[in-house]
Records
---
Amino acid sequence: MRVRFTWDRAKAERNQRAHGISFPMAAEIFDDPNHVVGNNYFIESDGEQRYQAIGMTRKLVLLVVVFVDRSQPDTDVIHLISARKAVDYENSIYNDQFR
């Protein structure tokens, strides 16, 4: 199945300035076979469930990425909302799966 990543361009630019993380870099964590996904929060006005993923980029930077699953029958669509480096607590969530 094909995976496609989408995002709002202005939001991506703000994220890059605020956190130093580009959305193309953030998309890399979905290639990490050990990434961890959990519910983030539900946006009632949009009817969207947001998720949070913790995973490693190709350059071994652990990130937290908030996204919405907008998949269609023939394509997985992941819409990126925000991305930042993981803090200690999130680092421990990721690393606990290896113990």
---
Amino acid sequence: MDWKVFLATLSAIFFAELADKTQFVGITMASKTGKPFSVFLGSIAGYALVTLISVVIGTLLAKYIKPEIIRYTGATAFVIIGMLMFFNKL
């Protein structure tokens, strides 16, 4: 286990996900259902599945595409989607 990579990933994910829409969904579901443990387990399962998919895709892409291209493409897509949302086109 590479603890430096683990801690860097933990920190990046924690701060990126802090107060995002996923957290608000969890708050809403827990308050509506009154079943916080079920919401907690469902949240963990959902996020684990999304993370598994992203890690598998990232691993596959890294075999064929340079990491810099993946990073720039992701950043560009993020900016374009943000602009489209800003101008109510998405």
